[in-house]
Amino acid sequence: MLNRRQRLGKSGEETVAKYLETKGYKILTTNYRCKRGEVDIIARDGQVLVFIEVKTRSGLGYGSPAAAVDKRKQQQISRAAQYYLAEQNLFDSPARFDVVSVLCDDTKQQQIDHINNAFDLCE
């Protein structure tokens, strides 16, 4: 059984996947997990492979959702992305890292902020 925070996160990820599809992205996988970490959504934007971190918040009490993707989180996503690239033999594929934040208000409205190329590969 998912708690409130987990339900909010899952709802945000589903919203973002639908949003990306309307923008022409092809979703390859969601919630990719490996021994190196986790990536919320892996998609293709044309020929570019996109590793997408989704952050969902119900308010700004803890700051903007995108601000939660700090250096440590970027490193974790980068490690998981490198593992995925090796596993799929896609090292020659152009890739980037996006962050998509979802802010929900009391009326269940969702505001989406998509940051393309939000950060570079971290070691």
What's the topology here?
Blueprint: H1 4-22, E1 26-34, E2 37-45, E3 48-57, H2 71-88, E4 95-104, E5 110-119
Parallel strand pairs: 3-4
Antiparallel strand pairs: 1-2, 2-3, 4-5
The amount of beta strand, in percent, is 35-45%
| Low-pLDDT ranges | none
**SS elements, strand count:** 5
Oligomer: single chain
Tell me the major beta sheet.
Answer: 5 strands, mixed
| Radius of gyration, in angstroms, nearest whole number | 14 Å
Shape: globular
Share of helix among residues? 25-40%
The end-to-end distance, rounded to whole angstroms, is 35 Å
SSE order, one letter for each helix or strand: HEEEHEE
Strand order of the largest sheet: 1-2-3-4-5
Q: Number of helical runs?
A: 2
**Structural class estimated from helices and strands:** alpha+beta
The overall pLDDT average reads 90
Notes on the protein architecture:
- The mean pLDDT is 90.
- The chain has a five-stranded mixed β-sheet.
- It has two helices and five strands, in the order αβββαββ.
- The protein has helices spanning 4-22, 71-88, and strands at 26-34, 37-45, 48-57, 95-104, 110-119.
- The protein is globular.
- The chain is α+β, with helices and mostly antiparallel strands.
Q: What labels describe this entry?
A:
five-stranded mixed β-sheet; 123 residues; alpha+beta
What's a quick, concise take on this entry?
It is built from 2 helices and 5 strands, in the order αβββαββ.
